[in-house]
Amino acid sequence: QIVVTQGERPMSADNKSLGRFILDGIPPSPRGVPQIEVTFDMDASGILKVTAKDKATEKTQHITISGAVGLSDDEVKRMQEEAEHHKAEDQKKAEKITAKNQADSMVAAAEKALKDAGDKAPADVKTKVEEKIKAVKDVLAKEDASKEDIDSASKELSDTLSQIGQSMYGNQTQNSNVKSQNEESKEGEEKKEETDNGQEKKSSKGKDGKAKSSESAERVEEGEVVE
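Predicted structure:
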């Protein structure tokens, strides 16, 4: 849903609503993936055309608004003064909304990490992550939760979530070391067999050589007898 407002406040609810429209036909996508491009086009008559386009599907929808800038100088001045008066308050609201959005993204990432890890992650680590996910969701459900509360819960989830990666990396390293040791052991056994076979062949040649020498000596002795 695209909401078009007019005003000086950062929060749309604090501004004057001009209209709203729906951009449908967008396929389901993971959080944060869809990219919507919104353009504003105003003609000489003060008629505003707002167009929204999904970059992935190229689907578009628009709304035409008449009298969008029909504000007097006094109304514009009043809006500007209100914006300045509520500047600090609006900033806190904006920061809290940003923290909530980041926490939502963190929860989505943690749930995906648990699903991808499956049985590869230790059960105790998975349990801790699930507990931290619940803690973040509980904080987000509270209307009076502060930005600091949300940030704290998000950080604890992030720190715990990193343990999944560390444990999986540790398991991979351990498996790699075991595999390397097995390969080295196998290679050592093969070299030992080759060495043993080489010694047997050398011994066999030595016996053949001795036999040939004895045979030559007998021939020499026969020669002396003949003379």
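Summary: Strands lie at 2-6, 16-21, 36-42, 48-54, 60-65.
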